[in-house]
Each structure stands twice: as C-alpha cells, then as structure tokens.
Design brief:
0% strand, membrane, mainly alpha, transmembrane helix, transmembrane
Length: 73
C-alpha cells in the first residue's frame, strides 16, 4: 500500500487523538475542582484514560505523517 492510502487514516487519528486530549484535560480540571472525594475519582480516572488514549492515537499518526513527508521529499 502506498503512503496516500494511509494519509487520510493518519489525519483522522490525529483529529480523534486531539479531541481525546482536550476531553481528558477538561475531565481532569473538572475532577480536580470537586471537593467531594468520591465524586471526583471517576472524572479523574476517565480524564487520565482519555489522555493516554489521545496520546497513543496522536503520536504514532504524527510520526507516520512526518516520516512519510521526509521520505517523499
């Protein structure tokens, strides 16, 4: 398969990853502002999970695009 077939998939992965990073950051902020410990734990857990998933989607897709641009130029 050529680089052009994977480029749209990489762009979609970057968009989804950035959205997950934003959602994760918002959940962490909301969870850290709550005073009740029992109601903040799920928000913090989901926030960290969203950050990890967003990073694992974004970084490989960015590397794929950068390596593809370097190889083709």
């Amino acid at each position: 398969m050529s680089l052009m077939t994977f480029t749209p998939l990489a762009v979609l992965s970057i968009i989804a990853g950035v959205l997950l990073l934003v959602v994760g950051a918002l959940l962490l902020v909301r969870g850290s502002r709550r005073r009740d410990d029992s109601s903040s734990r799920p928000l913090l857990a989901f926030g960290v999970t969203a950050l990890v998933l967003g990073t694992s989607l974004t970084v490989p897709a960015l590397l794929w695009l950068v390596m593809g641009l370097v190889v083709t130029t």
